[in-house]
Amino acid sequence: MGDWFQTVVDLDATDEEAPALGDRVLARLVAEGIVEAARTDCVLGGGGYGYPPGPHYAKAVEDPAPVDLWTNGLAVATGRTVFDSGQGDVAAAVCPLCEGDIRLVDETWQPIDDAWDPFAGTFDDWIEGGEGLVTCPACTRASSIERWTWEDDYFACGRLGFTFWNWAELTPAFVRDLGHQLGGHRTVLLQGKL
Ligand SMILES: [Zn+2]
After folding, report:
1. What is the distance of C-alpha 52 from the center of its chain?
2. pLDDT greater than 90 at residue 2
3. How far is the centre of ligand 1, averaged over its atoms, from the C-alpha of 178 (Å)?
4. Are residues 162 and 181 in contact, defined by beta-carbon separation less than 8 angstroms?
5. Does residue 148 sit in the same domain as residue 132?
């Protein structure tokens, strides 16, 4: 038994706009009754405080049964964050410039240590405000870690993310609508377990 989560990450929000955008979208989710306005200790991470499901929670999910778990809230993260999918290993990274596929695990799903060399320190550099440049082993060009994509969307670099703890699967319509509320920004949906 673990706690299952889904995170919608805004890939386009800037450092400057992320906090206000997060507040605006949250206000809309409260107004629609998807979550409650008052924070409680209902999420993991981020200090443990989040927004519990609201009276119309069922509109957002495929299965309308209430979440009968202590961890059942929405956590909103703003500021540079490397969102991840929790357990398991990421299988591959894809260069944004050549679309080359960098394998990160072998046939038995063991991490290939050397394959991580180009990425060493880049997540930390990016979180601290740097570019986090990765030099692609395939095309030898450098690009920011935030532009790389990961197999099964294992990681996503963003300044704004909405993590729903133990909610049933979010409906595609709800995720799409969240993207509209984010001003049409590109989003990615991470799913995982802790
Ligand atoms: Zn490349």
Report:
1. 19
2. no
3. 31
4. no
5. yes
Distance 135 CA to ligand 1 centre (A): 8
User: Residue 163 — very low, low, confident or very high, per pLDDT cuts 50/70/90?
Assistant: very high
Place of tokens 């909405």: 162
Domain limits for position 10: 4-84+154-193
161 and 136 in a single domain? The answer is: no
Bridging pattern class, strands 74-84 and 92-94: unpaired
- Which CATH number belongs to the domain containing residue 24 in this structure? 3.30.70
Per-residue model confidence as pLDDT tens digits over 89-111: 899 999 999 999 999 999 999 99
134 close to 142: Cβ distance less than 8 angstroms: yes
CA of 193 to the centre of ligand 1 (A): 30
Question: Is 45's pLDDT higher than 80?
Answer: no
Write down the pLDDT at residue 132. 98
Hunting for tokens 């409260």 — which residue is that?
Answer: 30
Cα(117) to ligand 1 centroid in Å equals: 15
Q: Inform me whether the pLDDT recorded for 7 exceeds 80.
A: yes
163 & 147 share domain: no
